[in-house]
Structures are given as structure tokens and as C-alpha cells.
Write a structure and sequence with these properties.
Blueprint: E1 16-17, H1 33-37, E2 50-51, E3 57-61, E4 67-72, E5 78-84, E6 99-102, E7 108-117, E8 123-131, E9 136-139, E10 147-151, E11 157-162, E12 165-170, E13 176-179, E14 189-191, H2 196-201, E15 208-210, E16 216-223, E17 229-234, E18 250-255, E19 265-272, E20 277-280, E21 290-296, E22 303-308, E23 314-320, E24 327-334, H3 342-345, E25 348-350, E26 353-358, E27 365-370, E28 375-378, E29 386-393, E30 398-403, E31 412-417, E32 422-424, E33 431-436, E34 442-448, E35 455-460, E36 466-471, H4 474-480, E37 486-493, E38 499-506, E39 516-521, H5 544-550, E40 555-560, H6 569-573, H7 581-595, E41 600-610, H8 612-621, E42 630-634, H9 645-652, H10 659-662, E43 676-682, H11 690-702, E44 708-712, H12 724-740
Helix pairs in contact: 7-8
Length: 741
């Protein structure tokens, strides 16, 4: 249940005015749904920055995808072209590429072509090995499309997965290809790649790695043969058209473990490349445990294996010997509720040390260990969350990170040395994110705020000084700002004494003497955050769609309730074992607060959301207090027993362990539904299955609750393709106009 809908906002108490003007001419150009969904006003970014090993430069794919350009971190200017499709030589006659992977010595490049998506992060592709010096390329393999190729540290071997099996290509032996595993089979065994639930919920697409001496390969083997199958019906449709289903529908069957069901059995394997010996690690893993990460350290005899128990409240980091197969516990991280994904997601290795972000103090901070698992220091401290761990520079002994030190709704980039001396590297107030050079001498900083589109600058990591501005989006700011509504931020206290943050977008010609209908948007999932001081306000950047609605006479509002992130572990984890209860109460409280404002019509308040936000829309509309005139729930889970094991059990445990918690859901609350409802779902949603829609809609039918529905053929969780996204937002917009105006 990854949050893919970005939003922004604030931190100040009570309606601080940030933008918009009554002086804008009434006949000014308007934002249209065609422009919004078509991306006309989306900001520009510096995409695909890949730092090079010299620490002074980075590579980037050109806008036309024909060239790989090397640029200077000092100036951002082009140094050389490493690959040019028009000049490179090869039998395939490549016109452009989809992506690339540099070898460790940067003498070779893997060129990615013919990419075909599978799930959120996985895909197949045809790769070519390109020699930078002689400008020639040749196929990585003639045996069919490949997945997730990886160079060995010495650059002489490439491992990849095809048809659930691992293969090796030895570049020093005429690109000789050999097969490492032979038991891989669709819906049964996967070698080196995560299954659906591990990919989706552990944010990973590769589960194999080379040892630092390039002599060993290690991987996770997933036996999903006993995992239940979920079947998605597929139709002919359009964009793309599935002509094979013109007469009869087809089906896509894949392994999807719902809460409490059987997961894949996982083991960690190693392969001696020279001697061709395969071994299984003696890993002390629970029979129903997870391995979200494996990573070879600088010591080839130490493979770091991260494990989780099924409840995900215990994370162990083992140092495994890939030859003896012995595993020694280095670190154990335990939590009364759950270990957040940021722990293993932030794990980084540097020489004989590693670090990661833990919330053991009540806030997320960086902890630094040696390879034996000895804690050497807590790097950051304070009543604030660290949001990113960028890296460590051994030469100057400094750590680089981003945190919410100034406010939960803002992020800045910092460095800190081993003595605790901290230096702020970003001066702009709002949201800052960084990409560092391998030397940690330079970084690209992306800054934005509620009223400032993203500005990308190149900076000196020693002091944060701006070297050059690469993208300022000035033209976008000049063109779109007059079209946006008035943005304000506020805080309020609920009847339970909880202070919540929110943002608000008012019409450009707002009149405080009038009463306005309100549309509330929220996501509300554990650890998520929609109210941040950044350009990502609303569903589309800058609050475009919300401004479109605001300028039709609505006030648009977003409030982050309990369970959301960047306010410490207690605030984030207070919804544990009871998802939807506190979250829906807080949206109702927000509606009551808004209804008390002199310019809000308390009888015309609506709520909407997507994914977890759709779930909480349904929960809020059936909370018991009838505050919502209407609501729209897109791709909404309707009962957590239908959702996957990893995400659901992290917050809810299993249905058998927590029946009362699972009983708090929209289906059980169907009789309490109040207000007009529009349900929207894609039939091919592999994440939140269409069954969630069918079951909750049936519950409403049997309770005599009238509602509308909109189905999108063959669309997945993101509901896009062809004219789909425009149709979706026109449907939502028209519904709110009908119900609230």
C-alpha cells in the first residue's frame, strides 16, 4: 500500500496566507482538466542523475534517450558523451534506449531496451553490453529478455534473472553464459527476484548480490508454490487493446498472499563462481519469516542478511559466511509494535561500518555500527525525525542526511561529524532533497515550497554553497501562479486534544462573507504525509486540480490525522492493530472544525481519497457523525483481510490474532454510511483487488444504501492509460459539482 499520490503543505497555526491574489483578472486563463491531466503545468527536474566513481561527475540520459552524457558536478555542464545511438555500432541498430547501468570501472555500459513492466518495480528488457572505448555493443544474452542485471565488483561478470532462474555472463570468456539455478518456475520458485508481496511492500526488485572479491554470488530463493493464487480477469479493452480477448475474456493468475495466508518460504543461497558449488545458508529464520535485504559487505566473508519475523517487530542483521554457511547475529532491532520499513530501507555499508535509521528513541535517527554489530554511536539526536540517510564520508568523518528538525512539515539537508557538530547545508525554507556525488563533495539539491516550484541547484557539500542553478522553473511559476488558488496552512485541536496540521486552497476571488462548500482530500496511511511545505500540494503538482475546483467556488482542504508520519513513533504508531478508527475520527473532527469557520457551509462538506485514502473515505463517511454530504473512494481497500500479508500484518497482525481490529472496516460499517458516495476501481488492480469493490458495494446494496460506481476496464491501481485519467478526474469533478453546488 505505497503512497503514490504526492501532496503538500504546512505548519503554521490558523490560516497563514501564502499565495494567490484577488487582483487577478476575472478573465484570466483557467486551469483545465485537459492541461492538468496532460501534464502541461508539471515542473521540470534534472532526471536520472547517476554519480560516477571519480566523485566529480555524473551521467545522465539525454531527453531524446539517444545519448548518455557525462556532466560535471562543479558546473553541471557536459564533459563528454559516453554513448550516442547514432554513432554506436552493433547489429541491433538501436535508435534509443530506455535506461542504462554503468560497470564499476565505467568501461562498459549495459543498455536497456524493449522494457516491459510487470509490477510496480519489476520489468523485463533486452540488454546490450556497450564498450565505451570502441563504441560497440552486443547482446547480453540471446536466450530471451532479462531482469535486473548486475555487474560484479571487478566488472568481469554480469548476473541476471530470466524465467525465475539466475544466469552468469563472463565477459573475459567471450561473454560465455552459464545457468546458476534450474528450479525456477512461474508461480512456483523464484531465484534472485522478490515475489509480488516482497517487491511491493519491501520496496525492492533485486534479491541477489556479488561478494566484494567477485568470487561468490548470493541470492534469496522464494518458494511460492504453496501461496494461494489470485486471478484477475482481463478484457479486450483499449490502450492497449488485448485482441486475444476479443471473443472470451482471459485471466492473469499470480501468487498473492492475503492477511493470514501462506507466504513464500525463503532461503538464502550462495554460489561459488569458480568451483560452481551451491550452498544454503544456515540462517536462523522463522519458518514464516522474511528476508527483505541481503548485501555483501567489504569483507567477502561477510554477507549481511536482514531478517524479519512475521509480525515485523524484530529485525535481525546476520553476518553470514557464504562458504561455511554459518550465520552470526550482529544486530537485533526490536519494537513493541513494528519496525518501520525505513530501518532496512536506509541500510548503508561503508568499509567496515554500516548505518541505518531506527525509531528506537521514539524518533527516527541514524545509528552507526561496525561490521561485528557493535554500536559505535547514535549519529543524530532530538525530538524530530530523520527522513533520509544520504551517506558517510570517511575522509572527513561526516554523515549526510535530511531531517524534519525545523518542522514536521519541512525538510532540510544537514551534515554532522562524529563529535556531533552539525551543519545545515540547505538554507531555503520548505522541502529539500539531495543527491550526493560518490565523493560526498557535491550534491544536487531539489527545493520547493507551497508557492515555489522545484529549484534544482548544484552545491558544495562542505558548506551548502550554491555552485550553479540547473533548473529554476521560473517560467512555470510565472505562468501557473496566477491560475492557482490561495494557499493557506493551519493547525487545530480535535475534541480529544490532538493537534493536527492541514492545508487549504481557496478561490482566487475568495470572499470571506460568503459560505463555501468544502472538499477534503486525505491519504491517512501509516507513516504517510500529505501536509508538507512543498510544491507537491494536492494530487497534481502545485495544487492544480484543487485550484481548478477552488476557482469553481470550492474550498479544498487536506488534514493529516493520527497515524501519519514525521511526528515521531507515538503519533505514527497509535493506530496499531486498529487501522481506520482514529484516522476516520480525525477526518470527521477536521470536518467539524471546518464547519465552524464563518466562510464554510457545514452542510456541504465532502471527502475523497485514493487507495488507503479511499478506505478512510469510506470509514469517515460511516464513522457515525453525519458530517459529509458526499464522498469519492478510488481503489479503496474495504476489508484488510483482502489485502496482502506484509503490509496488513505489519500494522494489524493476522485476522486470527486480531479479529476485533479487522472488524473495523467499511463493510461492517455499511449500515452507518451517510452521504452520497461514488465508488471507483480498476478491474485489473493487482494491488487492491477489484474484489474490495465488489464486496463493499454488495454490502451497501444489502443495507439499502444508494451509491454510484465507475469501473475502469483493465486498469491497475494507478488507473491511467489513453483517455482514462482525464475521464477519471472529470467524473470526480462533475460529481462534486453536482452534489455540493
Amino acid at each position: 500500500m505505497k503512497r503514490f499520490l504526492l501532496i503538500i503543505a504546512s505548519l503554521f497555526v490558523g490560516g497563514i496566507f501564502l499565495g494567490g491574489s484577488k487582483a487577478v483578472a476575472q478573465n484570466a486563463q483557467q486551469l483545465t482538466l485537459e492541461d492538468i491531466t496532460g501534464g502541461k503545468y508539471n515542473p521540470q527536474y534534472v532526471y536520472g542523475v547517476n554519480p560516477m566513481k571519480d566523485g566529480e561527475s555524473y551521467t545522465q540520459l539525454s531527453d531524446d534517450s539517444k545519448r548518455i552524457i557525462r556532466r560535471s558536478f562543479k558546473t553541471g555542464k557536459e564533459i563528454e558523451v559516453l554513448f550516442d545511438a547514432d554513432q554506436a555500432r552493433g547489429d541491433a541498430k538501436l535508435k534509443a534506449i530506455d535506461g542504462y547501468i554503468m560497470s564499476p570501472d565505467e568501461r562498459r555500459i549495459l543498455l536497456r531496451t524493449q522494457t516491459k513492466p510487470i509490477y510496480r518495480r519489476s520489468y523485463t528488457a533486452e540488454y546490450y553490453i556497450y564498450d565505451v572505448q570502441n563504441k560497440k555493443y552486443e547482446p547480453l544474452s540471446d536466450g530471451g529478455p532479462q531482469q535486473m542485471p548486475l555487474f560484479s565488483p571487478d566488472g568481469n561478470v554480469i548476473a541476471f534473472v530470466r524465467d525465475n532462474n539466475l544466469f552468469l555472463v563472463k565477459l573475459l570468456f567471450g561473454n560465455a553464459e552459464s545457468q546458476v539455478t534450474k528450479d525456477g518456475k512461474f508461480n512456483e520458485v523464484i531465484n534472485g527476484l522478490p515475489d509480488w508481496v516482497n517487491e511491493e511492500e519491501f520496496t525492492t526488485a533485486r534479491s541477489f548480490d556479488f561478494s566484494s572479491d567477485s568470487q561468490m554470488l548470493a541470492w534469496v530463493r522464494y518458494d511460492e508454490s504453496k501461496v494461494p493464487v489470485y486471478s484477475i480477469q482481463e478484457f479486450k479493452g483499449a490502450y492497449p487493446t488485448r485482441q486475444e480477448y476479443d471473443e472470451y475474456p482471459g485471466a492473469y493468475n499470480y501468487k498473492y498472499p492475503v492477511a493470514g495466508a501462506k507466504n513464500s518460504d525463503v532461503t538464502v543461497m550462495t554460489f561459488d563462481i569458480k568451483n560452481r558449488v551451491t550452498r544454503t545458508l544456515k540462517l536462523p529464520l522463522d519458518s514464516d519469516g522474511y528476508v527483505p535485504r541481503i548485501h555483501f559487505t567489504s569483507d567477502p566473508a561477510k554477507l549481511a542478511v536482514v531478517t524479519l519475523n512475521r509480525h515485523q517487530n524484530r529485525m535481525d542483521i546476520y553476518m553470514a559466511n557464504p562458504r561455511s554457511t554459518e550465520c552470526k547475529l550482529a544486530v537485533r532491532e526490536e519494537n513493541a509494535k513494528y519496525v518501520p520499513e525505513t530501518a532496512y530501507g536506509s541500510l548503508k555499508f561503508y568499509g567496515d561500518h554500516f548505518g541505518y535509521i531506527s525509531d528506537r528513541s521514539g524518533y527516527k535517527h541514524i545509528y552507526w555500527y561496525n561490521l561485528n554489530g557493535k554500536l559505535e554511536r547514535q549519529v543524530t539526536k532530538g525530538n524530530y525525525d530523520v527522513s533520509a540517510f544520504y551517506g558517510y564520508d570517511a575522509q572527513n568523518g561526516r554523515f549526510y542526511y535530511a531531517s524534519h528538525q525545523e518542522s514536521p512539515l519541512r525538510t532540510a539537508v544537514y551534515s554532522i561529524d562524529k563529535s556531533g557538530k552539525e551543519r545545515k547545508l540547505s538554507t531555503e525554507v520548505g522541502t529539500n532533497n539531495a543527491t550526493f556525488s560518490t565523493s560526498m563533495k557535491y550534491f544536487l539539491n531539489i527545493y520547493s515550497s507551497a508557492t515555489q516550484p522545484p529549484v534544482t541547484t548544484l552545491r558544495d557539500a562542505a558548506n551548502g554553497k550554491v555552485i550553479s542553478t540547473m533548473v529554476d522553473n521560473k517560467a512555470l511559476k510565472d505562468n501557473v501562479t496566477p491560475l492557482l488558488g490561495q494557499k493557506e496552512f493551519f493547525t487545530f485541536k480535535t475534541s480529544e486534544g490532538v493537534e493536527l496540521n492541514g492545508w487549504m486552497i481557496k478561490p482566487r476571488n475568495f470572499d470571506a462573507s460568503k459560505k463555501y462548500p468544502v472538499i477534503m482530500y486525505q491519504y491517512s496511511g501509516p507513516g504517510s504525509q500529505e501536509v508538507t511545505d512543498s510544491w507537491n500540494m494536492g494530487f497534481y503538482p502545485g495544487g492544480q486540480w484543487e485550484s481548478n475546483m477552488a476557482n469553481q467556488g470550492f474550498v479544498f482542504v487536506c488534514v493529516d490525522g493520527r497515524g501519519t508520519g514525521s511526528r515521531g513513533a507515538d503519533f505514527e504508531k497509535c493506530t496499531y492493530l486498529n487501522l481506520g478508527d482514529k484516522e476516520s475520527k480525525d477526518q470527521v473532527e477536521a470536518a467539524l472544525y471546518l464547519g465552524s469557520l464563518p466562510y464554510v457551509d457545514k452542510d456541504r462538506i465532502a471527502i475523497w481519497g485514493w487507495s488507503f485514502g479511499g478506505f478512510n473515505t469510506l470509514m469517515s463517511m460511516s464513522e457515525g457523525r453525519k458530517v459529509f454530504r458526499a464522498g469519492v473512494a478510488v481503489a479503496a481497500p474495504s476489508n484488510w483481510k483482502y489485502y496482502d500479508t506484509v503490509y496488513t500484518e505489519r500494522y494489524m497482525r493476522t485476522p486470527k490474532e486480531n479479529p476485533t481490529g479487522y472488524a473495523v472496516n467499511p463493510i461492517e460499517r455499511a449500515a452507518n454510511l451517510s452521504g452520497d458516495l461514488l465508488l471507483i476501481h480498476g478491474t485489473a488492480d493487482d494491488n487492491v483487488h477489484f474484489r474490495n469493490f465488489t464486496e463493499v458495494s454488495e454490502a451497501y446494496v444489502q443495507q439499502g444504501k444508494m451509491f454510484r460506481q465507475q469501473i475502469y476496464t483493465n486498469r491497475n491501481h494507478s488507473i491511467f492509460g489513453g483517455n482514462t485519467r482525464l475521464h477519471l478526474f472529470k467524473t470526480i469533478s462533475d460529481y462534486f459539482v453536482e452534489k455540493l453546488k
